[in-house]
Design a protein that fits this description.
The complex is a heterodimer of chains A (113) and B (112).
Chain A: E1 3-5, E2 10-14, E3 19-21, E4 24-26, E5 33-38, E6 44-50, E7 56-58, E8 64-68, E9 73-78, E10 87-94, E11 101-103, E12 107-112
Parallel strand pairs in A: 2-12
Antiparallel strand pairs in A: 1-4, 3-9, 5-6, 5-10, 7-8, 8-9, 10-11, 10-12
Chain B: E1 5-7, E2 10-13, E3 19-24, E4 31-37, E5 44-50, E6 53-57, E7 64-68, E8 74-78, E9 87-94, E10 102-103, E11 107-111
Parallel strand pairs in B: 2-11
Antiparallel strand pairs in B: 1-3, 3-8, 4-5, 4-9, 5-6, 7-8, 9-10, 9-11
The chains are: A mainly beta (113), B mainly beta (112).
């Protein structure tokens, strides 16, 4: 079964420092991978996706993600964290034979002023 | 351009009751999916509607049912509510055949 794992429940980073939110995947075939963000009491917002092509994917709000096939990882990154980046981040992968997404359990990012 | 909208925002129900949640998709989208997000968890796929039919279903009991209307809007119905049904219910829309889904703000259901 297609799945993603987010090994960290919470990540704390100081404002202005680079941030990384980790995601590893287990899929058969070529992986399609997604990152979504959820602000308090809000729905999920799409950040970026990897379908094929360059291993470094650029997305919304200055975020990017690095696809690493050998490490089966798709880590979310940002060069300089903002307090407003504090939110829940979800990695996702389509279910086998489907366009529906299976989400990780989420990582809470806290950016400290 | 209006995004995905959901109503109501919050809802409190008693065990055994029935509830209906509503969703209007983003303009131009024809496919609607529903997800349940329990506290501290990622969203879990309930089902997807396209052309007014349930096309895919996740691991949810028959108490969960839905409908899609000709204007692509959708309803999620839950019968015989259990305490464990308390969650944020998210609607997502997309264009058929695409992966990128747009989510609504959700309906917070509390079952007492």
């Amino acid at each position: 079964a297609q799945s993603v794992a987010q090994p960290e429940d919470q990540v704390n980073v100081a404002e202005g420092n680079p941030l990384t939110v980790k995601c590893t995947y287990s899929v058969s075939g070529n992986p399609y991978l997604f990152w979504y963000v959820q602000y308090p009491n809000r729905g999920l917002q799409f950040l970026l996706k990897y379908i094929t092509g360059d291993n470094l994917v650029k997305g919304s709000y200055g975020f990017e993600a690095e696809f690493n096939k050998s490490q089966t990882s798709f880590h979310l990154k940002k060069p300089s964290a903002l307090v407003s980046d504090s939110a829940l981040y979800f990695c996702a992968v389509p279910r086998a034979g489907s366009y529906q997404l299976t989400f990780g359990k989420g990582t809470k990012l806290s950016v400290i002023p | 351009d209006a995004g995905v909208t959901q109503s109501p925002t919050h809802l409190i129900k008693t065990r055994g009751q029935q509830v209906t949640l509503r969703c209007s998709p983003k303009s131009g989208h024809d496919t609607v999916s529903w997800y349940q997000q329990a506290l501290g968890q990622g969203p879990q796929f309930i089902f997807q509607y396209y052309e007014e039919e349930e096309r895919q279903r996740g691991n949810f009991p028959d108490r969960f049912s839905g409908h899609q209307f000709p204007n692509y809007s959708s309803e999620l119905n839950v019968n015989a509510l259990l305490l464990g049904d308390s969650a944020l219910y998210l609607c997502a829309s997309k264009i058929n055949g695409g992966y990128e889904q747009y989510f609504g703000p959700g309906t917070r259901l509390t079952v007492t």
